[in-house]
Amino acid sequence: MKPNLSKKELQEFNDILSPYLSHPKVREMKDYCAHGRISVLQHSLNVALTAYRLDRMLGKKADLHVLLPGAILHDFYLYDWHDKPLSIHIFQMHGYTHPFEACKNAVEVFQADDKTQEVIRCHMWPLTLRNIPRHREAVLVCIADKLCALRETFQR
Ligand SMILES: [Fe+2]
Ligand SMILES: [Fe+2]
Predict the structure, then answer these.
(1) 7-79+87-154 fold
(2) I need a surface site. Which of 6, 106, 148, 149 has the fewest CB within 10 A?
(3) Distance 149 CA to ligand 2 centre (A)
(4) 65: confidence class by pLDDT, cuts 50, 70, 90
């Protein structure tokens, strides 16, 4: 995905994300497949970029220090979901459980704050019924994730 950002925007984007992108646990996400042939790391970068662009379109009102870490860590669950045994119980399915797993890891590895945790926990809404995105950053990541997942699934 092309960034389509100005030099200044790209600098801002990279400055906030570089501590995350240089971390070995985040780099591990490139070993897991998200949609189609896209790794979880590439998908998470696409989501961060899309959320950044959506925020720019809507007047740059988001806190980028919540929006971008939340986006890069939203799928920080660190396993290959294709290897997970299938379950008929919705509360045990990857789609339902992975935001909570990602949130737990984000707290353990990066001491993610409450707002960033909400971005991660709510990104699968409406599947995760009671975890409704209530602030701007969580809404933007929730939308960006769906746009990217659709695009990545059909882009072969
Ligand atoms: Fe996800
Ligand atoms: Fe995602």
Answers:
(1) Hypothetical protein af1432 (1.10.3210)
(2) 6
(3) 7
(4) very high
